[in-house]
Amino acid sequence: MIRLSGVTKVLPSGGRPLIILHPLDLFIPQGQFVAIMGPSGSGKSTLLGLIAGLDTPTEGEIDVNGARLGRMNEDQLARFRGSNVGFVFQTFQLIPTLTALENVMIPLEIMGRDGAGDRANELLDIIGLTERASHYPAQLSGGEQQRVAVARAFACRPKILLADEPTGNLDTATGANIIGLLRAIHSEQGTTMVLVTHDPEIATAAQRTIQLRDGSVVEDSLPATGGDGGNSSGGVEP
Ligand code: ADP
Ligand code: MG
What is the pTM of this model? Predict the structure, then answer.
């Protein structure tokens, strides 16, 4: 689960401070698939960075899976991310000098998990790229690279998957394929998924859509009532 309480992001700038996020309260129960939409510059990437603990809020508290991010130091945050959070980026971000298989193994090895090779092979099978295991990113199409990135993101079975415009560099059909893959693994593993997208069709795949404008939520298709997550899409707060 993800909970933001009174979270703001304000940057000092020459004249008056620049408000990136206005006070934001948000509860996302475990297992929910949420699409974040909004124009460029509305604060979508900032919001994902805060949830991931890659960025710190100016005010407010962020709790992820019961852990308060503001109470962790850098090492604790890094370990927390490694075992709880998976990422998918618009630009794939695979390591060019590693094969597809090795790219998927990396997070498992960093976290010291046993059976990294077996788990990575299992994931390549799920994404349908077993035959490309020994290929390097440059030898793969954009869609194939993003499938490898999805496999890498799910490698450590994260409770939360964050994706920032994961289909932004792909054609419509390939993008739909990536979203299908995310949805399949999401429902199989019960992952909470927060996906930033410009594509209304992709947003319809989500259980909930949140619209940001100028750093404020202007629409939430399924607001949590009273902050206790009591909504029909399931997901009980631990
Ligand atoms: P989005 O992902 O919705 O396009 P962002 O979260 O990237 O929006 O950015 C929100 C706003 O914050 C934008 O106006 C952007 O220019 C500004 N911004 C983000 N990070 C910084 C930064 N480090 N320094 C200055 N401005 C920033
Ligand atoms: Mg962005």
Answer: 0.90
